[in-house]
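step 3/5: co-fold with adenosine-5'-triphosphate
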Amino acid sequence: MYLKALYLKQFRNYQEQKVEFSAPKTILVGNNAQGKSNLLEAVELLSTLKSHRATRDRDLISEGTSVSQINATIERAYGSVDLSLRLHYPGRRTVTVNQETLKRQIDFLGLVNAVQFSSLDLELVRGAPERRRAWIDSLLVQIEPIYAHILQQYQIVLRQRNALLKNLKSGQTQLDPAQLALWDAQLATTGSRVIRRRDRILKRLAPIAQTWHSSIAGNSEQLTIRYAPNIIAEAEPPEKVQQAFLDKIQQRRVAEQVHGTTLVGPHRDEIEFTINQTPARTYGSQGQQRTLVLSLKLAELKLIEDVVGEPPLLLLDDVLAELDLLRQNQLIETIQDHFQTLITTTHLGAFDAQWLTSSQILTVEGGKIV
Ligand SMILES: Nc1ncnc2c1ncn2[C@@H]1O[C@H](COP(=O)(O)OP(=O)(O)OP(=O)(O)O)[C@@H](O)[C@H]1O
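step 4/5: write tokens
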């Protein structure tokens, strides 16, 4: 797929900006805080309807305004598609495809596929499990847009069940075993769907990432990736997962009531990375952790391409300088002209001369491409 044009209106520090992408690689160069990452964030929003940097639309809309718009034209194998996302504060989002407003936002997902790689991703290995869950969830949304709905259903049940447990703890509500059993069943049903999908995608991603990891680090390093749900060791078959879920809820019944919150379910799951049987999170060297994150990103590119049938976009936010020459070369060799890539940087000095000549270079200054 190829992103031909992007138009931003009152988005972050952009008042109004049109960008035409004229080469498979676009380098956005500029000083700090000029709007380079904001531009990549706009593409991320079109791809997943989420930003990894903002949870509220209010922060995305330019200060002092109440509506923000991101338009894009994307060339897909089946033709050209015009997309538009409007953010309102206050108010809800609206999405349009080829000038037609969609009733369900979920139908917007999957039209732009993108792999995002920023220096923050180095925290993917070292950081809290929440980061890893957010990472796998956003990959799943791109590969199986229906997953956005599945996850949302689980989150609704979880919120309501948490509210009930909190009220029970504070004595505001009397325990009604039938009502709690109903929430338990819904949590197990929706939660099992989340667990099984996360497990399935990681089983597909793991061998690709393993191959990359060995190719960058050498064959002596064996990477394993495993989804570790807190309720059961294996995420198949579905009936077994649901039963294990209910059993675990039973086991943790007293603890849940003491804490007044849900302690069982995919909102507490972990994704384990091990290198030669040693947990990469705690024992991996910085170099190993970097290789691992790069391998994951390269694997994401390949997996999305395999599933979708077209190469996704690659968004590299200030990350090349974080990689040493070997890892940079591995990434560059993989990208070539196959994956359309948008790269932000504060200086062009770090780039290979050949890269610079074959790239479109745009200077970003104070929310404008100059
Ligand atoms: N809602 C908003 N309205 C107006 N300006 C905003 C809004 N949100 C962020 N900004 C501005 O956007 C700028 C940050 O831009 P961005 O995060 O893209 O930086 P960058 O160019 O990628 O720099 P760095 O190299 O530091 O990451 C800041 O000047 C910030 O004040």
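step 5/5: annotate
The domain at 1-113+311-370 is CATH 3.40.50.300 (Rossmann fold).
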